[in-house]
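User: Hi! I'm working on a homework problem where we have to compare a predicted structure to a textbook description. Could you give me the structure for the chain below?
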Amino acid sequence: MAFIPRQSRRLAVLLAFFPIMLLYVIYTFKLHDFVPSIAYMPTQVSIMEPLSSVVRHKFWPWTAKLDEQHTQQPTPPRSTFTRHIVAVGDLHGDFANARRVLQFSGVTDSFGNWSGNVDFFVQTGDIIDRGDDTIKLYVWMDRLRAQAQKVGGTVLSLMGNHEWMNAIGDWRFVYPSELKTFGSIATRQRILSSGRIGRTWAHNYTTASRLPLHPSIGRPNAPYPASGLQIQVEKDEFNELQVHLNSGNYPLSHAALSFVHGGLAPSYPELTPFPSRINDIASSLLSKVQHRKQPLPHPPHAYPGLPADATPEEHRLYDANGPLWYRGWAMEDDAVVCAQVDEVLKKTGTRRMIMGHTPDFKNIVSRCNGKIIIIDTGISHAYGGVLSALSIHYKLEPIGDEDTGESQQWKETEVVSALYADRQEILATEERVISGNILHELPITLGEENEVDFD
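Assistant: Happy to help. Predicted C-alpha cells:
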C-alpha cells in the first residue's frame, strides 16, 4: 500500500470540505443576494439551505434548537396594500394651468415639486402646441420624474398625436410666440429631434402604457400576456424563501389600467402583447423620424409625411384607427362602445381604458361603468375648459380568519374620482372579494427579456 504523507491527507480532507464550507459562507453571510442566479433560482436555494443547515448544526449544535423554534413560530400576518394614481390629460403649452392641476390633485406641492402623496402620475400626451410653454413643461416633467424616482414614485409620460405631429414636421398648431421661445425654426427642429426634448421623447415617453394596480402583476409597461413564466419569490420574517407561480387564473391578472392618448380601437391589429407591441413600433418610427434630415415644417411647406422606409405597422400606428388618433370610444353611442369594450380590456389585461385627445370642456367623461374614461377637459387657456385630474385609489386588504380556513381571502377596493379645483366627483367604486396566496412583491419573469425596468 502506498504511503500518503500526513500533510497530504490533511490537504485532501480540507479540499473535500471546501465546497461545502464555501456554500455555507455564501448563504450564512447573505452573499447570494449579490448573485441573482443564486438568490432566485429555487434549485440553487434547495441545495444551499440543507447543506448550510447540516454544517451549521455540526459545528454549532445550539443552532439546531434555534432553527426548530423558528419553524414553530406562526406565519407573519398579511398586510394591506394601497396604491394612489393620478392622471392628467392634454396640457397644450399652458404651464400655469398645469401647475394648478398638479397641485390641487396632490401630485406637487406649492413650489411645483413632487409631493410624495401619490405613487404614480400619468400624463397622456399633447403637452406641445397651442401655447407658449413647451420648453417649461417638458423640463418640469423631467424634473418631477427625477424627484419621484428618488422617493419611490413614478411618472409615466405618453406621446400624443401633437408630439408626433411636431416630430414629423407638421407644425400647423405651433404659435409664432411659441416658436420665439426656441429662437429659430432650425433650433426648434434640433431640440425636438436630437436635443433635450427629442431625447426625453425617445427615452422617457411611450405611446401606450399598462399600469398594474398591484405589484404582483408586474412592473408598469411589462407586456401582457407575459412571454415567460412568472414566479414570485419572497422571504418571510424568518428568512425562509417562498416561491409562488402566477398562472393564467391568477385572481389579479387584469387588475391594471391602460393609458393611451387617443384610444385602442377594437380593430387595431397590434393590441397584443400590450403595451410592448405598440411601443416597439412607436420606438422604431420615432427613431426614423428623428434621424432623417429634418424637413422644412408644414406649413408653409409641403406636408412631409412619414419616412419613406416606414413599415405598414408604423403607418397603422399613425392613422385614424391607431392609438394616437382614434376617437371611437368618445364619439360612438353607448350601445356600440359598451358592447366592444370588454374584448379590448381582455386582450390588454386591463379593467379600464383611460385616454385624452377628445375634449369635453365641462368634465371628465366616464362611460360603461367606468371602463372607458376620457380625461381631456381642455385644461389649456387655448380651450378655456375646466381644470381637472383623474384619481384612482386602490386598496387590497386581508379578510377572513385563520381558524375558519379563510386566511387567503382579500377585499379589493377601487375608487375612481374626477378632481376639479372646487370639487370632487366619484366616477366608479368597486369592491371585490378574491381568494389566493397574494404577495405584495414584483414577480420574476423567467424567459422574458424585454421587461421594462424603472429602477
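For your comparison, note the following. The chain has one domain: 81-226+251-435. Residues 81-226+251-435 form a domain with the Purple Acid Phosphatase; chain A, domain 2 fold (CATH 3.60.21.10). Good luck with the assignment!
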